[in-house]
Amino acid sequence: MLSAEHDLARRDPALPGLDRMLDDDRLADWLADNGMDLVSRNYLRYKPGTSCVAGVTLASGPGLVLTVSAGAAPKLHKSLRAVSDRTPVAVTSDRLMLASAATADRDLPGAGDVTATLRRLLPLHDWTAACTRTLSYKPQRRWVQLVRTPDAAPVVLRLQRPQSAWAAARILRRLDGATPVVPELLGYSRSRGAVAVDYLPGRTLHAGLTSGTAGVRELQRTGEVLARLHGRVITDPGAGHRRDSARASARQVGVLLPWLRTGSERLAEMIESRLPPSELTLCHGDFSADQVVLDETGDVRFIDWDAAGMGDPAADLAGAAAAGLTADQVAALHNGYSEVRRLPAGLRVQTAAALLRRAPEPFRTAEPDWPEQVAARVAHVEEMLA
């Protein structure tokens, strides 16, 4: 019996490298043959018939693996030209699969020389002795690093596509001095696609809930702060509020697990038909317990404002619920929110939409049992809409 990965690769012959990319053992062997040691595969973004890119951790640091169809080969060749002589690279004989360090990510122009990027953003500091630690890396999208140096406070450096960096810097300027406290924008370069913000010390709400050091009080406080955010109005919010549609995720579920195609697309249609008209408020845009930082005094701060803008406030609350909060934790968050402003309409439908958007995530994050997890998430959405 074929594994789900091999079955998916068999159904997409346009991507000859997909089978290798989805098999950790084969991927590790190929990388080892080219002088790279695979530690883990962390992230996948898949466009059927066109490309698949993986974020990987190599022994040397974060890296990417890209495979494309023959028709999309120019994209890979552009990536190959971005690789410097100092960067290890692997290319298959058909030149349709490439692996390299994250420093060669051509979509992140500031990644090639991080020290030079820091000097451009914050020229008054000496960055020669800086130590960097990767917080997250999604190939061709963003690379977030914590930078420490002896003569300055820690800095979070976000390397992104230039347009995304511009939008992030713009929204942070609009929110300067806002409640909740947001990271201070320290420097920005559109040409390098780089944004530097101050580091907010503390632990995430997610970590606190997992460890048991945070509970009802922290959730209620988070709800209060989120409600105050939703009460703010900003003009000219840059790129505005962006969110992938539930219909797009339903289509991807159908590609990954064909027997769920009809059901998941039907659920997306039900969601769209049931969403009520909503007010537009300032929204975080990607809200979850991972985006909430609690400092040592218990103050609540929000991070990662890339998707912020005007949108439906129910989507922020729904995003938190869909990201793994229990029913009791959701209730505590809602209780805090309702102390400040009324809960928005359409919360149940928005939560179903957020769950469906997250349905393909176990595949994207390379979970070993991703078929079962994807199917369970679709079943959960169906229960919510029944």
- The average pLDDT value, as a whole number, equals 90
How would you classify the quaternary structure? single chain
Structural class: alpha+beta
How far the N terminus sits from the C terminus, by CA atoms, comes to: 34 Å
Number of separate strands = 15
The helix-strand sequence is: HHHEEEHEEHEEEHEEEHHHHEEEEHHHHH
- State the low-pLDDT regions, or none: none
Helical amount: 25-40%
> CATH superfamily membership of the largest domain, which one?
Aminoglycoside phosphotransferase (APH), C-terminal lobe
Describe the structure using short key phrases:
alpha+beta; Aminoglycoside 3'-phosphotransferase, Chain: A, domain 2; 15 helices; 386 residues; five-stranded antiparallel β-sheet; Phosphorylase Kinase, domain 1
Topology summary:
Blueprint: H1 4-10, H2 18-21, H3 24-33, E1 38-47, E2 51-58, E3 61-68, H4 73-81, E4 89-91, E5 97-101, H5 114-121, E6 131-138, E7 142-149, E8 152-160, H6 162-174, E9 185-189, E10 194-198, E11 203-204, H7 205-211, H8 216-230, H9 246-256, H10 261-274, E12 281-283, E13 292-294, E14 300-302, E15 309-311, H11 313-322, H12 327-338, H13 347-357, H14 361-364, H15 370-385
Antiparallel strand pairs: 1-2, 2-3, 3-5, 4-5, 6-7, 7-8, 8-10, 9-10, 11-13, 12-15, 13-14
Characterization of this structure:
The protein is of the alpha+beta class. The chain folds into 3 domains: 4-104, 2-Layer Sandwich (Phosphorylase Kinase, domain 1), CATH 3.30.200; 114-198, Phosphorylase Kinase, domain 1; 203-385, Aminoglycoside 3'-phosphotransferase, Chain: A, domain 2. 39% of the residues lie in helices and 22% in strands. It is built from 15 helices and 15 strands. It has helices at residues 4-10, 18-21, 24-33, 73-81, 114-121, 162-174, 205-211, 216-230, 246-256, 261-274, 313-322, 327-338, 347-357, 361-364, 370-385; strands spanning 38-47, 51-58, 61-68, 89-91, 97-101, 131-138, 142-149, 152-160, 185-189, 194-198, 203-204, 281-283, 292-294, 300-302, 309-311. It has a 5-stranded antiparallel β-sheet, with helices on both faces. A 5-stranded antiparallel β-sheet has the order 6-7-8-10-9, sandwiched between helices. A 3-stranded antiparallel β-sheet has the order 11-13-14. The model has no long low-confidence stretch (mean pLDDT 90).
